[in-house]
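Appendix C: a fully annotated inverse folding record. The material below is reproduced so that readers can follow the format used throughout the book. The structure is listed first as tokens, followed by the designed sequence.
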């Protein structure tokens, strides 16, 4: 792009030699000034008896008077005719011609934009790179569309400026490269407004628009009178702007705005397409590279297998008489090869296999180190003991990291399945507090529990307690003397526990990677405590296995808050009763207990319901049609999947034999009718918790 020649051309006006040269120009008509001056003098003198003719009768001879009358007729009649023709014929015709000329100008303007749109679509097909497309579209707008200048900018990362990507026109770099020109002014400038609203911004006259005040002098220098800023939008996000300038005032009509908007839309689509193609190429290259790595790994494995085979063959040659042992070695080799092939197909289990294999040698190393340190017969020197202690601490850390890796892998592969049940979060908080109280007091940290009894959580008690214990342990690690740690309940659309501390806090750049096992974010505690960096990823895997989530909020120097959130769940109670009135009574009793209630009229219907929704508690009558309460209870206790569900038998029969029969068949509790709320509700709560 030849900037200087292009600047000269566009400064002279791109439309002078192009399509706008054919546009009809506006004309103006003025009556000759002399004619109007004579008419203004003659007409007043020629009208009425008090005019010049009357004066000639008095002062002049009749001959001169006749000459004056003739002169009046000769001048006044053409004036009247001329006036009538101008106002009743010429002026309407001229107005009509002006309207047609304006329509023709609008048509030609639409033509230049339509031609630019057509060339832009061709450029989209030909473009191979994003910068090439931007340069070509800007050139088309100026040369084909015959506009004064065009440039494209992308929104910067800080949201306060536009980054120039391409420009074409009247030495546009002198304007666009100016930092004041490209600033978005927080949405108040013309470019920033278009980016903020996502709508085109049109300026009919730059010299009259206060938003262009700071650029008015530069615009006047390059003959820029009107402008339009068109946002570039992809997937609903405004990422840049196309700005077009023209040398005429009010240059952009409705049709031209639509066509230029289509150009901006096509340009945004082309940019998105090129970026998508680029990402696909990068992904393709990444896949090829990954396949190459896998191929190299397979070759290494095959080489190792070959080497191992060679070694075994040498051993077999030496032990040719021991055929049985050789066959066993061959079988072991074949099995090792099959395991190696399986490992290449099941790469997601690689971490689990490595962690499992590392535990045994680490345990051996730790055991021998402990034996050496505890050996009183041959004591070590203080220097050696200090070094052995450092080795022991490093080994303990590696062993802990191996165990955590193994736990994460077991959760991911489904080897650890949460056993869900309802329990009171208060019990978890008390258990964690009692276990960590000594460690907190040793550092001078206050451990508080603000969890109140009665908050029911549906989760695996052991795994959820392990998460809270880990969070409290981390908080103690990063607290100093005088700090505090608080356990509380968090409940909105989810339910869970929050661990809040007033410790050192976490730097903002570490927060996104805190729960990732492939990014190391661990740091030393306030007392030099070390960690593996895998505790929080393990806790996150536990929460995800529960359908929940682990999140954090932190401010450096003020502390952190970790949230262990779970889906809200209510216990499911199955009421089996054929009496509608009695079902209504039980329904009223359970309104304040926060349970989901499903109802069945007999045992057979209840069994069908339980195929899809096993309840947490069954309340059943004895006497019912089709299948009574005793038969229903027997079916429940015969099934391994349902035999542990608590069962409350309800009946109006006060005989002791009926009560004994219920307990012999496996009922957990027995209630006589009519039931009382103060007796019924505590029993329900006991079995649900």
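Designed amino acids, in order:
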């Amino acid at each position: 792009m030849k900037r200087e020649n292009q600047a000269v051309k566009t400064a002279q006006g791109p439309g002078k030699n192009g399509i706008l040269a054919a546009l009809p120009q506006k004309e103006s008509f003025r009556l000759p000034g002399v004619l109007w001056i004579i008419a203004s003098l003659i007409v007043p003198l020629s009208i009425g008896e008090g005019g010049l003719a009357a004066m000639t009768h008095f002062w002049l001879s009749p001959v001169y008077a006749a000459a004056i009358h003739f002169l009046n007729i000769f001048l006044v009649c053409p004036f009247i005719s001329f006036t009538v023709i101008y106002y009743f014929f010429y002026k309407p015709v001229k107005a009509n011609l002006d309207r047609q000329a304006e329509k023709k100008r609008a048509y030609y303007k639409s033509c230049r934009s339509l031609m630019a749109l057509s060339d832009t679509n061709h450029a989209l097909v030909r473009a191979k790179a994003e910068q090439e497309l931007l340069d070509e579209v800007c050139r088309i707008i100026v040369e084909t569309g015959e506009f004064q200048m065009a440039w494209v900018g992308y929104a910067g990362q800080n949201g306060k400026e536009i980054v120039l990507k391409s420009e074409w026109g009247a030495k546009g770099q002198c304007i666009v490269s100016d930092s004041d020109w490209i600033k978005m002014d927080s949405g108040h400038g013309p470019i920033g407004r278009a980016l903020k609203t996502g709508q085109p911004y049109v300026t009919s006259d730059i010299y009259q628009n206060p938003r262009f005040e700071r650029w008015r002098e530069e615009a006047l220098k390059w003959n820029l009178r009107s402008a339009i800023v068109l946002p570039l939008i992809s997937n609903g996000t405004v990422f840049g702007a196309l700005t077009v300038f023209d040398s005429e005032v009010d240059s952009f009509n409705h049709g031209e705005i639509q066509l230029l908007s289509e150009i901006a839309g096509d340009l945004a689509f082309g940019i998105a397409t090129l970026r998508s193609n680029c990402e696909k190429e990068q992904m393709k290259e990444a896949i090829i590279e990954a396949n190459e790595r896998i191929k190299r790994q397979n070759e290494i494995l095959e080489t190792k297998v070959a080497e191992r085979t060679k070694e075994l063959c040498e051993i077999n040659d030496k032990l040719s008489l021991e055929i049985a042992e050789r066959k066993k070695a061959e079988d072991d080799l074949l099995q090792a090869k099959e395991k190696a092939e399986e490992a290449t197909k099941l790469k997601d289990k690689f971490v689990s296999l490595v962690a499992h294999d590392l535990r045994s040698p680490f345990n051996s190393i730790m055991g021998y180190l402990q034996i050496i340190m505890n050996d009183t017969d041959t004591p070590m020197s203080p220097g050696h003991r200090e070094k052995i202690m450092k080795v022991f601490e490093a080994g303990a850390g590696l062993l802990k990291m191996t165990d955590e890796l193994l736990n994460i892998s077991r959760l991911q592969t489904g080897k650890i399945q949460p056993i869900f049940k309802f329990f009171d979060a208060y019990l978890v908080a008390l258990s964690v507090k009692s276990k960590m109280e000594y460690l907190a007091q040793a550092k001078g940290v206050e451990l508080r529990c603000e969890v109140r009894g009665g908050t029911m959580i549906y989760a695996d008690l052991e795994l959820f307690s392990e998460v809270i214990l880990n969070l409290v342990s981390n908080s103690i690690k990063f607290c100093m003397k005088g700090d505090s740690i608080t356990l509380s309940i968090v409940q909105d659309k989810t339910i869970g526990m929050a661990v809040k501390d007033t410790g050192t806090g976490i730097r903002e750049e570490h927060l996104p990677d805190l729960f990732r096992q492939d990014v190391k974010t661990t740091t030393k505690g306030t007392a030099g405590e070390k960690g593996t960096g895998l505790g929080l990823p393990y806790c996150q895997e536990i929460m995800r296995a529960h359908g929940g989530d682990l999140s954090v909020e932190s401010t450096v120097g003020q502390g952190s808050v970790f949230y262990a959130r779970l889906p809200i769940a209510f216990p499911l109670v199955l009421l089996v009763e054929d009496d509608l009135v009695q079902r209504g009574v039980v329904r009223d009793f359970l309104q304040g207990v926060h349970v989901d209630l499903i109802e069945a009229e007999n045992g057979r219907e209840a069994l069908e319901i339980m195929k899809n929704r096993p309840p947490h508690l069954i309340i059943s009558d004895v006497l019912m049609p089709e299948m009574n309460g005793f038969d229903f209870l027997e079916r429940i206790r015969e099934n391994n999947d349902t035999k542990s569900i608590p069962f409350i038998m309800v009946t109006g029969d006060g005989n002791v034999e009926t009560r004994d029969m219920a307990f012999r068949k496996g009922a957990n509790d027995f209630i006589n009718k009519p039931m009382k709320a103060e007796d019924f509700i505590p029993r329900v709560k006991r079995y649900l918790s």
